[in-house]
Amino acid sequence: xxxxxxxxxxxxxxxxxxxxxxxxxxxxxxxxxxxxxxxxxxxxxxxxxxxxxxxxxxxxxxxxxxxxxxxxxxxxxxxxxxxxxxxxxxxxxxxxxxxxxxxxxxxxxxxxxxxxxxxxxxxxxxxxxxxxxxxxxxxxxxxxxxxxxxxxxxxxxxxxxxxxxxxxxxxxxxxxxxxxxxxxxxxxxxxxxxxxxxxxxxxxxxxxxxxxxxxxxxxxxxxxxxxxxxxxxxxxxxxxxxxxxxxxxxxxxxxxxxxxxxxxxxxxxxxxxxxxxxxxxxxxxxxxxxxxxxxxxxxxxxxxxxxxxxxxxxxxxxxxxxxxxxxxxxxxxxxxxxxxxxxxxxxxxxxxxxxxxxxxxxxxxxxxxxxxxxxxxxxxxxxxxxxxxxxxxxxxxxxxxxxxxxxxxxxxxxxxxxxxxxxxxxxxxxxxxxxxxxxxxxxxxxxxxxxxxxxxxxxxxxxxxxxxxxxxxxxxxxxxxxxxxxxxxxxxxxxxxxxxxxxxxxxxxxxxxxxxxxxxxxxxxxxxxxxxxxxxxxxxxxxxxxxxxxxxxxxxxxxxxxxxxxxxxxxxxxxxxxxxxxxxxxxxxxxxxxxxxxxxxxxxxxxxxxxxxxxxxxxxxxxxxxxxxxxxxxxxxx
Length: 638
Ligand code: 0RA
Description:
Layout: H1 13-27, H2 29-33, H3 38-57, E1 63-68, E2 74-78, H4 95-101, H5 105-108, H6 125-130, E3 132-141, E4 144-151, E5 154-155, E6 160-164, E7 169-176, H7 188-201, E8 206-211, E9 216-221, H8 225-233, E10 245-251, E11 254-262, E12 269-274, E13 277-278, H9 284-303, H10 316-320, E14 323-330, E15 336-337, E16 343-344, H11 347-367, H12 369-402, E17 423-428, H13 430-439, E18 445-450, H14 462-465, H15 469-478, E19 481-482, E20 485-486, E21 495-499, H16 504-520, H17 522-526, E22 530-533, E23 538-542, E24 545-549, H18 552-561, E25 569-572, H19 581-589, E26 596-598, H20 601-614, H21 619-635
Parallel strand pairs: 1-8, 12-14, 17-18, 17-21, 21-22
Antiparallel strand pairs: 1-2, 2-7, 3-4, 3-7, 4-5, 4-6, 8-9, 10-11, 11-14, 12-13, 15-16, 19-20, 22-26, 23-24, 23-25
The structure holds 3-[3-(1H-pyrrolo[2,3-b]pyridin-5-yl)phenyl]propanoic acid.
């Protein structure tokens, strides 16, 4: 049947429509994949993988192989049913070609799985095709292997049968188009993280990930699904029970899964997904889960007389202290909201998750009274600590007033009182702090030097944290408060800029600060107020000419521009302190000549993850880990 398309004339009305559709994608790629940077590039891979995951959800596929090829292409192979090649009744062209070239073709042959559309996901593989220099698809189906090639989205020949096949499945190999995308360099770690995540979210699937550029080959397979996800996230911690609590329920057409684990620490790590998409901004499903946790723990504690004399009961923060959780819901018609489309909007889902978790968690606690007892005990302790923290905060505030103005003594504030114009540089060490003070524009740039390592927030509760001078300085300088009493409106600087040395200690301090913000002042991150200053790594000098380089690649380029390495002196900066005030200002601080990296929620979440590994009890593996990852951390492509 597929061979019929060979007779199709090249320019029918429908093929012209196809070309128009493809050129719309090529003209405005950002509309389809969000951006044309590394994020957009990786979105292409995820789009193709999502289509194979749909086959997994349909129960038709068990293995996916993703390969990054040496020629810069990426292939995704699955053992699903194969995309149909026979003519599509409506278009009278092979379904395969429609899927590969026509807008939203996917929804026309709904495979009865949960849609990923609504965000930047689920836009269709034709978008990947349109943004590829070339794309080749192989379909194994009905005893034959079919092949078609496209260039910049347009077929360069009909579908051909290239051989027999005893198996079924689809393989899509594409080379992203470097004339449209700003970068075509796939990042193995970024893709690997997502594939690992997908293997947790889709229990039982095997995802193999090969990088032919360096020969690495990994396989992700988690029969335990999100239960194993939670185990993976809480590896380093002292757990209150094992294995994690797993709850599963259906509400109407929606499917709800939660895995929960508690440790003896004070923080929360909770991830939420809708149709396999990480909803970093939460949404109705998260609201439902939180409500259910608070309600169920309070009911359980009251029935057992564990909350005597405590009228208010346990708060949401109390019952989430030490929690690691993964919530994964499959929703038939998801609505994603917000700028990044990373928040679930469907109002009905709140009640569905809430009722499902209320019911299943209460059941679990009935059946596991020892676990229930220890969790309530912990939440009650948290509630007492919260009260102590409130008192400590009060005290800090009063002390601040007595000391006059309340701003920390080490802060060299700027003249401007307009937060929108003002910047706070958090600088590692008193010496670099001094240089930064000399080099700054005091009209709008404030400097806060931090001495040594700041407190490890992983191991401290809020009341302990507030006893730490460095943390107190940070909190007062930033101005929005901490914990459950925060007001982003009183932020004193719209740019909070971390300026640390490009070495292991600098990376460590930056990870600590990002973790502190991520956990204790999350709005700073979600509102995009936190930046990383980019200090140069090298200064090159040849006679009277000099240049700065911010990476090894830039150094090599600068060397070439200076006509080779002959007569060039290269200074490698080991710390900010090696620059004088004028150099630091022009390379790193002055708005006209500096580069700032804005920290995204993902960056901060990754820092937080890194931090959990770094903060394990053992010192030696931690040092090794920092050393191994130092370069990565320095570049912040995390
Ligand atoms: C439409 C219908 C069917 C399968 C697919 C599409 C399909 C698409 C992709 C994309 C990547 N891998 C895929 N595998 C399958 C159902 C076909 C049937 O009922 O046999």
